[in-house]
Amino acid sequence: MEYVYVTAKRMYLLDRVAVVANHVGEVTNGERLRVLEHGRRFLKVQTPQGAMGWLEDHAVIDQNEFDNFENLAKQHASEQPVATAVLYNELYVHLAPGRKTQRFYILPANTKVSMLERASIPRVAPGSVLGLPAKQEKPRPGQQAGRARKQNFLSQFLPSVPMEDWWLVRDGAGHTGWMLSRDLQVDVPESVAQYAENEKMVGAYVLRTVEDPDSGTGSSQVPEYLTVLTPYKEGLPFDFDQVRVFTWDTRRHRYGTAFRQHDLVGFFPVKVTPGDSNAPNGPAPEFSFQVAANNAVSLDPATGMPHAAQLETMTYRMEGNLVRKVFPPGAHSTANADMHAVWRRSAQRKKHHAKSNR
Questions:
Q1: Could you tell me the strand order of the sheet in which 176-180 lies?
Q2: Residue 110: phi, psi to the nearest 5?
Q3: pLDDT at site 342
Q4: Of 240, 48, 89, 267, nearest in space to 179 by CA
Q5: Contact assessment for residue 93 and residue 87, using Cβ atoms and an 8 Å cutoff
Q6: How far apart are CA 142 and CA 313, in angstroms?
Q7: What pLDDT, on a 0 to 100 scale, did the predictor assign at position 133?
Q8: Would you call the peptide bond into 269 cis, given omega within 30 degrees of 0 as the criterion?
């Protein structure tokens, strides 16, 4: 017994293959149909309700292709999401990254999905030729130093051909597949998203909540966030290049940046151990993420997924409104010694400079 599965959003079954035909039934995306007869570019099928009619074969996938989607879902069923997102529009999920890869399920607009993995693949856009170097932005005279520094940092990672980013996502029903990243709105609270400063927030994680009856947010319990950000560039061989911690000012009733680290070559997952400032003796919030050692990164040519030659874990703890780095056992004293050595050299240079200007 042969079965096929509907990939179209909605289609009518026809009583015959002809220019003029009657509608004898309707099928929708994901529905399983029994194949009764094969024709040229058409299949005669039967629905679970018993309706029989002809359907164009490009509107369905066969059992083998359906099993591939099922296997993809099983492989990632227990995978923890790195962030969540909402769909801008009604979208298909694909079996692999790429506009021309096999697609199946249609997820409606505003569906919330879990983001699992990212991949970047070359694209051929109108007016571009695959294989030509991508146009790179160069700092113009008069640009701010921070922006020029950012462009200089990114220049070593920009791809040589136009690329596009795809995310492996999973919806609440377990449907799993790849979607274009530009069609996803990462689920970040607007209260902190407004501080992105020309970058894209790709994750926001609650570190703790603080009490502020006059917060103006609709709740006296206000969350404080760890966020991770990435440039508006596609095809980068890492997941994010900046982390920021936003704490709540209970006097001014607004968010402020308590910690920022940029020019990172960061990778998901981000791990957070939340705390609670309303419990004085409770555990302090901690968070950690991974960075590429020596910035040695690349894109896997087979999968398009970012890869680091070696990853290092960076861990931080919030103490009050201060964020301090947590060193591995035995490394804290060495790190302090190195830091003091830098301070001593800086002080000596300043002292020498002061003498030479007398």
A1: 103-107, 91-94, 176-180, 163-170, 112-122, 83-87, 184-186
A2: 75, 10
A3: 46
A4: 89
A5: no
A6: 37
A7: 42
A8: yes
How long is the chain? Answer: 358
Q: Where are the beta strands (DSSP E) in 39-128?
A: 42-46, 52-56, 60-62, 83-87, 91-94, 103-107, 112-122
Cα(250)–Cα(267) distance, rounded to whole angstroms? Answer: 33
Q: Is 23 exposed, middle or buried (0-12, 13-18, 19+ CB in 10 A)?
A: exposed
Which contacts (CB < 8 Å, 24+ apart) does range 315-320 have?
315/286, 315/287, 315/288, 316/259, 316/286, 316/287, 316/288, 317/284, 317/285, 317/286, 318/207, 318/208, 318/245, 318/258, 318/275, 318/284, 318/285, 318/286, 319/284
The DSSP element (H or E) to which 335 belongs, if any, is helix 332-356
Strand partners, 6: 60
3-state helix, strand and coil shares in percent for the chain, rounded to the nearest 5: 15, 45, 40
Amino acid 93: pLDDT: 97
3-state secondary structure of 354: helix
| Distance of alpha carbon 213 from alpha carbon 215, whole angstroms | 6
pLDDT at 350: 54
Task: Give CA–CA dist 34/17, Å, rounded.
Answer: 18
Find residue 205's DSSP bridge partners.
226
Give all domains of the chain, ordered by start, each with its CATH number.
3-63 (2.30.30.40), 76-123+147-186 (2.30.30), 188-353 (no CATH)
Alpha carbons 14 and 251: distance in angstroms, whole number: 69
What is the value of pTM for the model shown? Answer: 0.81
Q: What is the secondary structure of 256-306 as a DSSP string?
A: EEEEEEEEEEEEEEEEEE---TTSTTSPPPEEEEEEEGGG-EEE-TTT--E
pLDDT < 70: residue spans in the chain: 125-151, 276-281, 330-358
**309: three-class secondary structure by DSSP:** coil
- pLDDT reported for residue 153: 86
Cα–Cα distance, 10 to 47 (Å, whole number): 13
Closest CA to 258 of 208, 325, 321: 321
Strands 297-299 vs 10-14: parallel, antiparallel or unpaired: unpaired
The answer to whether 55 and 14 have CB atoms below 8 angstroms apart is: yes
* Pairwise CA distance, residues 271 & 290, whole Å: 10
